[in-house]
């Protein structure tokens, strides 16, 4: 009797263990859709690649958690596909997947009800993101269907724009512009629509939205708060200057740099002193004078917090390495080694440690 009981308990524990984690089934998409329809569920798809580290983190750390299984298994037929091969490659093309990991929630017709791009650090956060796909006010596929049928109600446009922003969909710009066009002047500065002006893609320096924000900064400060508005303006200037220095923006010349500098003077924000250093670097870099660029780097770079050098220092030092003489090359190498010895920023330390031997010492 005890032996029978032991076998039963062991079997029961195995079953509990099997269902404690996310139950990814080995099914084709067609079979998954059929099973979901029969069980009155949706289909949850994990699309991944062999080289994607966030994909591995989700597979090894998040999906095995019991809370994930408890949430996903009763609601979804769960499947996963490697997009580098077989049906996975077809699914990537069919659903226009371009970033990994991407998770899809499909209805039983195979239509996208929701899309989640990127992993989560915790099961709690990922469950929250999946739950949005079951909410008609947040599920991107449901909102898209209404939009495609011609619904242009302001409330819908707000919900759809926010959903698109969450997955970095290029359509966000179009929807956000339609939303802005429906707002009167007093509505545009309302906090309900601040997310448009706050986003770096929707409100870039030089864009109509940015021009409106700058022209109405005091009104935005009253409704949003001076600190948030000034920080947004500072971030926009930061991004523009960084793009000029790193070469992402190859079109802007001295006039654009002068305009940024002049515009910055109208506002007060904590990073203003650093951005003035950026202005000086950008201006000298545009001149093409390697010696002047090196001198400005030697003077300004030590004053800049290392987390703000991650994008900037490497292209600057490569310019000097490629175009400078032997003495100038040694001086930029010396500056890099000094930064490596002093930095406490782990990302900068790792990147610089790899960069120096492969780029500056050769």
From TrEMBL:
PROSITE patterns (UniProt xref): THIOREDOXIN_2
Keywords, sorted A to Z: Signal
Domain Thioredoxin per the UniProt entry, residue ranges: 10-135
InterPro entries assigned: Thioredoxin-like_sf (IPR036249), Thioredoxin_domain (IPR013766)
Pfam families, sorted: Thioredoxin_7
Keyword Signal: yes
Residues in the signal sequence: 1-20
A Gene Ontology BP annotation from the UniProt entry: cell redox homeostasis
One term of GO molecular function: protein-disulfide reductase activity
UniProt protein name: DUF255 domain-containing protein
Organism: Butyricimonas virosa
